[in-house]
Fold this sequence. Notes:
10 strands, five-stranded mixed sheet, Nucleotidyltransferase, domain 5, 2 domains
Amino acid sequence: MNILAIDTSNQALGVAVMKNGEIAGDLTTNLKKNHSVRLMPAIDQLMREVSLTPEELDRIVVAKGPGSYTGVRIGLSTAKTMAWALNIPVVGVSSLEVLGFQGRFFHALVCPFFDARRGLVYGGVYEWKKGRLHSVYSEKNMPMEDLLSLLAEENSEVLFLSPDISLHQESIAEKLRERAVVPEAPYHLPKASHLALAGSMVEPVPTHTLTPNYLRMAEAEAKWLERHKGKSHG
């Protein structure tokens, strides 16, 4: 099975190709640049490098969020358009789950998170069992303080993974002390090859039913609903 994996859900842009269970190529950049401009050239470059044509793809896997609203939309719209045009299945995988793959050989709890501003994070808690990533606490948009309080009640070490780790490292250390494990910088970026692997183990869904995993409404949408709450629409 030939799989194309796409992740534009956060600042890092990742594209990978898996051929029959082996990673043929993995391209990642971590730049504050427009994913909409760079995604298709990245896909084209990687597909050429691994000598694969779009018609030879059997599946497309995309990181469906949470993360940047714009980034999530770019990834999903590209993946769904390609899957529809090629008449092949598309699979969405949680962006937090993809990051959790960086803790594949950690023996205790794994907590991937993304900063959501104003003291909030998108976070989840997982553990690895028999080669599979299992959810311990469901993914939520919540105050980082609440997430740390929840983890402090667990009698366990916790591996923290996040491209935004520097924003919260001090509070992590204060709350969990020696039970907090924070690895070096390369482990905090999701890998598109892990996305391809995760997506290879998921059953495809009809293309039109794949939706973003925002975990919360966009700020503009929330404000619009607040302004119109209680108003009659005739």
